[in-house]
Amino acid sequence: MPTKLAVVVFILSSCFSVSAQSGIDSVLNHSISFYYAQGVKFKDGIGVAIDYEKAFKNFSKAAELGDEQSVYAQAYLYFKGLGCNQDYTKAAQLFLRGAKLERDNSMYFYGLCWRNGYGVVKNADSAKYWLGKSAAVGYLQAIKELQIPIGENINDSAFKLVQQINNAAIPDKKITNTFNKIRHYIPTSDLISGTYKGFIIQYDWSGKYITSSKSLELELNLNDKKVTGLWIEDKSDSIRVNADLSYDSIRFNRMEYRRRDHYSDENGIKYNFQNANLNLVQSGDSIFLAGNLEMFSSQRNEPSKPIFIVLARADSSLMSTKLHLRTYPNPFNNLITAQFQIPKADIVEIQILTLDGVAVYRNYAGLLEVGHYSLPVKVGNLTSGTYLLKFTYGKQMQISRIIKQ
Fold first, then answer.
1. Which pLDDT score is estimated for 91?
2. Of the candidates 95, 120, 147, which is a domain's last residue?
3. Three-state SS across 236-290?
């Protein structure tokens, strides 16, 4: 039988334990609230400049303390590659954690992962299951997704389209269906004006899978390095072009338009052109405009998915005379031959450049008479990779893409 003193000590001890635990919980909750609030502040730019990296760090700290909403936020940033390396696998794993707790947003995104094969092997039944569970609790985006017959990453026509794009518009020797950044290397200010036709191609967040493709036409006019014209997307949506010519590329000034995609309604999402440069790429008697378009939506407070643009000038004749430049074999090992025709006596020079414009070979032929010529070029000391063979004839220039094996 415990003494009265022992009972009093036990009661006081219990009260102290409850009070201590309550204090610990209070501190923990305060820390979670602080880190989560900081994450939201930097993600949405509330009173500060948007900083996805700081947002990711704060959400991660709150997630480590057990906050499930921060786990979702962390997964969301992994999914889109905002403030961290884009990683569908990590995103899917974190979405699964929330989905098991029947969180509507986590179930929705986990369903998207299964539907499109993002971080998991594509499975229609699993996608339907998780999207259905999210829709069942009233999550609007899940309801809309189930009403769409196919996911975003099922676009065979776009895949075939990219395979058909002239390789001259992509300087690096890479798989065609991968999101590629275009480098600056061809200064040709006198070749801008004209009508360009082609495609605007949108990729998923990883930049590996094509999700949509639309026709695009650009009508451009150059006047003292100022480029004006008309941007016509899908033969209907149009906006006025306001851009500058910057050495070898067209740099669009801040332009705004609405863009429709798999997840937007018929009105589309409002975007601003943030980093939009189209670079000139010349191949034979054709000229291309190709590049990456980066946009930002103030409506969603985040950038767009990766967008790649490739256009060919409708009037593809670049030179008043045909030079019939041909380089072979291509790819080559140690020796490549440049074969060309001179229709009128003039100065000729041949250079081989890196994609950054550094000359690694130069042969100044001087004045050549009318006729056909062949110049074997031995460049066995070059490292493997993609180069540019620059052929200068008088005031004219032609560039061929060559590959050293």
1. 94
2. 147
3. CEEEEEEEEEECCEEEECCCEEEECCCCCCCCCEEEEEEEEEEEEEEECCEEEEE
Do residues 219 and 122 share a domain? no
Give 281-311 pLDDT, tens digit per residue.
655 455 677 777 788 888 888 888 888 887 7
Q: What is the rounded distance in angstroms from the CA atom of residue 87 to the CA atom of residue 93?
A: 10
Residue recorded with tokens 């403030």: 83
In a domain? residue 17: no
Residue 262 is assigned to a structural domain of this protein: yes
Tens-place pLDDT, residues 223-252: 777 888 888 887 666 788 888 776 556 777
Nearest-angstrom CA–CA distance, 32 and 65: 7
The helix/strand/coil state of 138 is coil
Give pairs for 95-100: CB < 8 Å, separation 24+: 97/68, 97/71, 98/68, 98/71, 98/72, 99/130, 99/133
From the list 244, 234, 301, 311, the residue with the least C-alpha distance to 266 is 234
The structure tokens listed for 339 are 């074969």
- Express each pLDDT in 28-41 by its tens digit: 788 889 999 999 99
- The whole domain housing 350 covers 326-404
Residue 167 confidence (pLDDT): 42
388 or 316, higher pLDDT: 388
Distant-in-sequence, close-in-space partners of 147: CB < 8 Å, separation ≥ 6: none
CB 171 within 8 A of CB 185: yes
Q: For tokens 């998207």, what's the residue?
A: 112
266 lies in some domain: yes
- Domain C-terminal end among 95, 126, 147: 147
CATH at 362: 2.60.40.1930
- Choice among 143-152, 154-163, 272-281, 392-401 with the minimum mean pLDDT: 154-163
Q: Give the type of residue at 330.
A: N
Report residue 259 as tokens. Answer: 């863009």
CB 221 within 8 A of CB 227: yes
Please check whether residues 81 and 175 belong to one and the same domain: no
pLDDT of residue 243: 81
